[in-house]
Description:
Shape: elongated
Strand content: 25-35%
CATH topology of the domain at 493-693: Endonuclease, Chain A
CATH superfamily of the domain at 493-693: Endonuclease Chain A
Amino acid sequence: xxxxxxxxxxxxxxxxxxxxxxxxxxxxxxxxxxxxxxxxxxxxxxxxxxxxxxxxxxxxxxxxxxxxxxxxxxxxxxxxxxxxxxxxxxxxxxxxxxxxxxxxxxxxxxxxxxxxxxxxxxxxxxxxxxxxxxxxxxxxxxxxxxxxxxxxxxxxxxxxxxxxxxxxxxxxxxxxxxxxxxxxxxxxxxxxxxxxxxxxxxxxxxxxxxxxxxxxxxxxxxxxxxxxxxxxxxxxxxxxxxxxxxxxxxxxxxxxxxxxxxxxxxxxxxxxxxxxxxxxxxxxxxxxxxxxxxxxxxxxxxxxxxxxxxxxxxxxxxxxxxxxxxxxxxxxxxxxxxxxxxxxxxxxxxxxxxxxxxxxxxxxxxxxxxxxxxxxxxxxxxxxxxxxxxxxxxxxxxxxxxxxxxxxxxxxxxxxxxxxxxxxxxxxxxxxxxxxxxxxxxxxxxxxxxxxxxxxxxxxxxxxxxxxxxxxxxxxxxxxxxxxxxxxxxxxxxxxxxxxxxxxxxxxxxxxxxxxxxxxxxxxxxxxxxxxxxxxxxxxxxxxxxxxxxxxxxxxxxxxxxxxxxxxxxxxxxxxxxxxxxxxxxxxxxxxxxxxxxxxxxxxxxxxxxxxxxxxxxxxxxxxxxxxxxxxxxxxxxxxxxxxxxxxxxxxxxxxxxxxxxxxxxxxxxxxxxxxxxxxxxxxxxxxxxxxxxxxxxxxxxxxxxxxxxxxxxxxxxxxxxxxxxxxxxxxxxxxxxxxxxxxxxxxxxxxxxxxxxxxxxxxxxxxxxxxxxxxxxxxxxxxxxxxxxxxxxxxxxxxxxxxxxxxxxxxxxxxxxxxxxxxxxxxxxxxxxxxxxxxxxxxxxxxxxxxxxxxxxxxxxxxxxxxxxxxxxxxxxxxxxxxxxxxxxxxxxxxxxxxxxxxxxxxxxxxxxxxxxxxxxxxxxxx
Length: 928
């Protein structure tokens, strides 16, 4: 809150009060002095010197002035069609005078009280009314744009009612009852809203017109007359509407609010006061208002005519209303009969200034205002634009712009983004359950704040519509104050030189077993482990599976040895404990009984890797190695598949992830991987790695919802791809990160993509899209740009992602990006459940297979391993695997909100109900 503006307002209020009431000057000044003494720092009232934001403010006069202001504006009940002059809180002399004025002149307003009503709604989430309206014609009511925008959107022909709870159409009615202590409203005072006729576009006045089904009895006026001219300063007025209880962040002094409103809200009230001039082409007044007052009529007491349409208030600063002259112009021209000016192309338009704006520049002197209707809508005052409250409404009412325009304004939006926006990118609105064609700014917000932003966030920025989506886990975690970005590590490139650590291509005879999971994941890995007669040197991200533990233990009991380098994810939570084992206890036992050495790789700026030792490689007997995209986990990467399940796989899908694996018998390649893994162990020891992860007490924790069961949605394959054995000369090159900070992998894959002439097939769980236009992420952005170019130019270029994506970049993010760059996502992009492959086939000859995720750390500073084949037979095998999955995949759908995506800072001794406390490092681990 702008304290200087508040102070100016309070001083001005005091001077205006003294000018109106010179007879009370002595009393007012005496009370001011008393309040100043009460607010002196160090006194018993020192706690009063904290402002609503918690900042210490030791200006006694300012505090005293606030007390004066708060006491002088009463609120009256409307009861039985009149003003209740008895049950009212009048704390100051002018408050008493205003109540007396209402006693003397209020009867002039009795005839218009039945013309003011509450805009009720059905099927709207969490609330049963949105604001106030009043008749300006026989069957026409006026309200605010930010109220009407919650129930209707422009569909190209008219304003159509939007959908609410359970996809049901929102219904609205206009009720002139809801007075103090009245029972169920009489049907004669309820009118169905049959049509939203007009909603002024953003940049114009905060005005909308609704049509209701109404028949009058001819008694009394049919509508409220509006004054021809704007009200001058210090005119006695009365705001009549339906104020709603405001939360503490909107009205910090909750006790005063309860006292003034007698702790009764959502009913018809009258708030007398005075006009206070003009600001930003709006009439201002000092009446007491709350949310729900949006759309209230501002009535001049002397004549009983409307002099304004209330639309916004800033706590302890000012209230804003559409002026009488503007309203008169709308009504004379019956503006509701004219279609709104919905822009269909980029243009330069002259806008009418009004107070609430979308995202403004600080140079314009903007400040925040919260409008509660009764949903809290926070906008900015000062720039000539207005915040609408619904993503769908934003799409309907904002100018339809091209992608180039969105990209043009996106960086500036990011610089001026509202508090709570965690990421911003080019996105698209949904259409009939699919990704539509209307581009927008897609702003990621905390899932807990999504509803507030959808209903009350800025709808546009510089003419570009804004859509709000739930932030991914990564976006939320990076917004936590405890999060630290890792841009450098203590990896030892200098210790990995010469032939022993070479990344050169090998073109020699070798035995290769190509296979895919879940069909043959464990079948081949189990044989690989069983055939070990000497040493196993293994590097793994997650090792949980009890059956893999049993197979390795059998080899150890036969005299074999195991060197295990692993990520701390191995010690993380396991969804199904029946499929796991106690890693701490078992590894400790192995160390005492067998030839077993292990280490957990340290991570971070002083670690071997950034945040994930994500590799899946095991070297057997110095000449054979297994390399995979999958971990040693029972339920996903390495499920035990029975013969019966395999026989029926085309009818009933198998459990577990789609993975690509390979086993190669070749001494040179095996020794290179073995050397890197052993050097990882030595370097981790130097960096302080241990047998178990660091103590959990040293961790930063977050709270996440307890996960629910996941329903398998993947369709069965049309055929099962059996393992394929090759025994001949094969060209293949090993690729690892974080060697040369990702250059080894990324430059090779860039060359691979750019070499594509006819086809490129890419199967990857997710592609980590940039969170904002100011990010420069190096290799990952280069890879995405190269892939995008091929998706646009090749005869056959397709990407297969995993559906879901609650942890990292969602499939919709990739779909939005590719679409914005001109890629036909309907033919080039699909998604499938439970796929964990990281593979690429180029021109039917070159194959990339391994564990590298496409994220910034995944292609640079994490430990991952891949192989790059130059072989048509290998390419054909994995092309078949790709086509099997492509045929059972689905189009990319709009991003869904997942319960599991909520991330809360850990506060207190225990998580809230339904949540569990986990280390932040575990949450930010790479997708398995």
